[in-house]
Every structure is written in structure tokens, then in C-alpha cells.
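hey so u asked for the seq, here:
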Amino acid sequence: MSQLYFVVTRGHNGGEFLSYLINQSPDFENTGKLIYEEYHSFMGTHYRIDDDWNLQDWDEFQEYYNQYVRQREKPPYNLAPQYLRELFCQWKKVRRGKNLCLFLNVTYYVPVAQMVHRSNCKAIGSIMNLPNNPARHHHIMMEFDPTSTNAEEGPNQSSYQYQAIVDQIKDWHEEETQHNYDHFDYVFDHSRITDMNYVLDMYDHLEITPPTAEHLQKVIGDYYHINRPQHEFTRKINQEKVDFH
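ran it, C-alpha cells below
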């Protein structure tokens, strides 16, 4: 029987990329038609994997996921139980024997993970681990971008200074370490994305069939290539020795 898996996290860049990786398992739905959402700033363009790239064949399910489950207008990005229950009803109408992984953009992890488990589904956590992350610029160009977060400061502001990037990643890391991750079936550390053994271990922990290492290297390499650093700020923040204490 097919099952829904949910990546539960507040960072939509890491969350959507992780759900994309999980959907690479042969056990999961995969249209093979990746859709990018483009975010432009003076630091370059960031290509975020669209939330519903894998839902294009199911109009009603896609519409419900986008309107009631994925799109929360502003923090706290909470998810009411009735919306998740209705999503399961919608899923029963379209499922074809394979699993599906979706992203839940929320700020309260524990109640949402518990709600997912009560529905006999898997809840997967995601951390950026910015002190050790070689691609901090992914976080900066998405999570600190007013075009995606409605923030009053960010890469599109003319007065934006490099020190604001340093301050922001320190704030994000402090908040990330304060979350409780005990209720997740698995927590993925994005700072280890280049360790193929680590990435493949995720599928073993979730008890799903892994894709080949060659396939994973390609999809990860393609994503990191299209989102390679394009500006002096993005190159500098990846190499900066930041005091996170």
C-alpha cells in the first residue's frame, strides 16, 4: 500500500530539496519533470525546486496541497489537523501504488510530526547545520530573500550589507539548535550532502529502496551546479569562519 512521507521543517529551500531526494527512490512517485521557482537578487538567481513538481498529473490533489497544506501566509506556519486529514482523502483518490514525499513548511515541529505519525505516515526532519555547511549561500538566497519571505531586508535591498548575512546565519543556527527533533523518524543534515554514503544511509533508515549512487550524484550535482555561488558575498559566506557561539 502506498504511503505519504513528509519533510517537516521551516526552511523551504532545504525542505523541498530533501523531499526531492526522497522521491528519487524507486518506491516513490517521480514524474522526472523538475520545475524550478526562480528567485532573483543582486547576488544572482537561486533556483528553488517547486513544491509541486511531482504533482502535475493530479490537479485536485495538487490544488488542495498548495492552497491548504503548503501555502501558509506568514509565521507561525501552522497546519490544522483537518487539512492533513483531507489531504489523505485526496491522496486515496489518486495513489497508484507508489509512495510520495511532500514538504510541510511549519515552525512548530513536534505537534506536526505527532500529527503525521497519528496518520501512520513518516515525518522527516531537516537541518542546515550552517557552521559546517559548504553551501551557506543556498540558505541566504532563499531564507533571507524578501521575494520569498516578505522580509523588510534582504538581497534585494539597496542598503544590504555583508555583515547582515553573517548575523542572519548565526540567528538561524541558534534557532535551529533550539528545536526538538526527537519525534522525527529521521533527520537529514544538509552539511553532509557531498558524503554519498551518508545520503544513501537515509534510505536505509527510512526502509525504502535507494536510487543508485550514480543517479544521486547526478541530481545533487545538477542542483548544486545551477545554484553555484555567483557573487562575492555568496563565495565569501561559504568560506567565512563564523563564531556561532
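Residues 4-133+180-228 form one domain. The first helix runs from residue 12 to 22.
lmk if thats what u needed
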